[in-house]
Amino acid sequence: MAGFRIGRGRDNRTPQRQQAQQAPPPYTGGGQAPAPPYTHQQQWPRAGGPQGGGGHGEPEYFGEPHPQYGTAQDPYAANNPGHTQMFSVHDDPYDGGATYRAGAGPAAPAGPRLHWKQLLSGIVLRPGPTFLQMRDYAVWGPALVVTFLYGALAIFGFDEPRDEVINATLSNAVPYVLVTGVAFVLSGLVLGAVTHTLARQLGGDGSWQPTVGLSMLIMSITDAPRLVVALFLGGENSLVQVLGWVTWLAAGALFTSMISKSHDLPWPKALGASAIQMIALLSIIKLGTI
Q1: How far apart are CA 108 and CA 156, in angstroms?
Q2: I want to staple 262 with a disulfide (CB 3.0 to 4.6 A). Which of 109, 122, 163, 206 is the partner?
Q3: Exposure of 94 by Cβ count < 10 A (0-12 exposed, 13-18 middle, 19+ buried)?
Q4: Inter-CA distances, 80 with 44, 54, 55, 72, 224, Å
Q5: For residue 29, how far is the Cα from the chain centroid?
Q6: Residue 237 banded pLDDT, cuts 50, 70, 90
Q7: φ and ψ at 34, to 5 degrees?
Q8: Rg from Cα positions in the chain
Q9: In a 3-state reduction of DSSP, which class is residue 157?
Q10: What is the C-alpha separation between 153 and 150, in angstroms, rounded?
């Protein structure tokens, strides 16, 4: 029984051994003191050192922060055996503050405002960088002018309206053409606003002016090849119909790219945001049901 008490007791260490394990290592003040040896009953260092706010044996996160914690003069420096080190998520070397995230507000513009010639050519030749660079700039001037001209000429791409305009007098034909151009501008504004609203509902954070203006330009520019051919062959020509389907698919790709860059959305959500505008363009322009 005596052997059992000595070998299985609660604490079979002698008082001298306990005192030697609990006593901190001597520190002479010259240079960095060596780390104390790790023992089973080693106490956690106090955050304030010998003068810290925590009591004897408190964990370091209950005391006051030490001004020189982790320096070369600290005997309880971080990463020593038996100690812990606090870290911060704000010092991310891979995040310089320029990341564009949905819901966090628009980031800084990717470049200066493009001239209207560079804007129109960029939508066709380099759509991705163009949309990214113009995502924070309003493009009302080019959008209104191009859409109005497109709408004024679009009436000649349909057989019946073109015959009515050609057979009408000049005083009647001019107002008819102007009204059609204004109607296309208003339609582009409404459809662009719907697309912007859907993009915001899906988690986008882009501005409404660039979204609406760029959507009007995409609608007008992508249908221009079909309209040019329809002026000579008529809207019911099979070649015009095939060209209309091809340009409609191209418009869908440009809408998706624009919304993805302007609102920082993945392409499935960007495509869903432009669904209503795509359906409207298909029924009104491509299929000739105006």
Answers
A1: 43
A2: 206
A3: exposed
A4: 12, 20, 21, 12, 71
A5: 54
A6: confident
A7: -70, 150
A8: 36
A9: helix
A10: 5
- Across the chain, the runs of DSSP E, i.e. the strands, are none
Q: Which of 258, 253, 255, 254 is nearest to 277 (CA)?
A: 255
What are the structure tokens assigned to 281, written together? 């363009």
φ and ψ of 238, to 5 deg = -65, -40
Task: List the alpha helices (DSSP H) in 202-237.
Answer: 208-233
DSSP SS3 for 25: coil
- For tokens 């049901």, the residue is 289
The residue written with tokens 């080190």 in the block is 85
Amino acid letter at 161? P
Candidates 116, 96, 99; CA nearest to 108 is 99
49-82 residue pLDDT tens: 444 444 455 554 444 555 444 445 555 555 555 5
Rounded to an integer, what distance in angstroms lies between the CA atom of residue 110 and that of residue 106?
A: 11
Q: What is the pLDDT of residues 248-287, one digit of tens each?
A: 999 999 999 999 999 999 999 999 999 999 998 888 766 5
Retrieve residue 38's tokens: 């790790």
CA dist., res. 105 & res. 181, Å (int) = 35
